[in-house]
Design a protein that fits this description.
single chain, alpha/beta, Quinone Oxidoreductase, Chain A, domain 1, 7-stranded mixed β-sheet, 11 helices, 17 strands, globular
Length: about 350
Amino acid sequence: MKAIILHNKGDASQLKYEEVETPKINDDEALVKIKAASVNHLDIWVREGNVPANYPIIPGCEAAGDIAEIGKNVKDFKKGDKVLVHPRVTCGKCEYCFEGNDNLCKNAKQLGVTINGCYAEYVKAPKENLYPMNDKISYEEAASVPITFGTAYRVLISLAKIKLGETVLIMAVGSGVGTAALQIAKLAGATVIAAAGNDEKLDKAKELGADLLVNYYRNQNFDEEVRYLANGNGVDVVVEQIGGNILPKALKCLRKGGRLITLGTTAGNNVEIDAQHFYRNNLAMIGTSGTTHKEVRKVFELVKQEKLKPVIDKVFSLKDASLAHKYMEERKNFGKIVLKP
């Protein structure tokens, strides 16, 4: 089969389009012919060496396609079934899996990180990682669900526990997680303040349902603007995935008793916060990484019911994965970037 191989860490030129052996499945796995694979910042971090990975490796965490072959213990699927491939292979036996927090599984393997992933014509996965599709959604949309919509669902529903009538600030609203969080927040009955670094993305966020808009590059004191827009009090919840010098200001966007969920550091890992402001205002900051099978299944049902819709920004040919990475690194996308074999 054709696949993208990452032999060594480095820039986008390290993504090589090569001929490799098609994966061989065991009795509990299925082989999926990939129709669409999405691009994530995690793929870039793997390529750059910022996430421990096993080189050489086929990157790519999530995909959708048709089952081409099934193991004898795979009873719920048949050849030709359209499926979504969940990226995280968990053990189901450790204390975290037992508690329902399988995103923290001690023995987890990750497609595109520790085992070969989805930038390929075929991928193999355990039966537990296959979710049936319906005819209402495309392969491109399905492939855009696990990491972005799964994460956004975890952030807003499982962790922030947003309520009807609350106000939510979504930072980096143009990202895959941002566009998903916007839709989930609106579906839950929240008022959404969308924040991004350029007006074109904010215009698109408005079309997607955002109530209020903030450009945090043009306004360095965007926290003051957000508090003003939120009746002078601040917002109930912040979805923050940038880090760097943005996170401290995002904390100051919260009302007393508000909560911030942090899930990314694209602008830097080292953050300095005002601890006194934090504790005097009874703020909560929760970190999260990954998403559970249960959360992805729940949000995928909402997508299949057409209550949520993945935003696809651009589709690249698999052989042009390096161009797709550069496009994401230049922050040009609003929504998901997808590869097609």
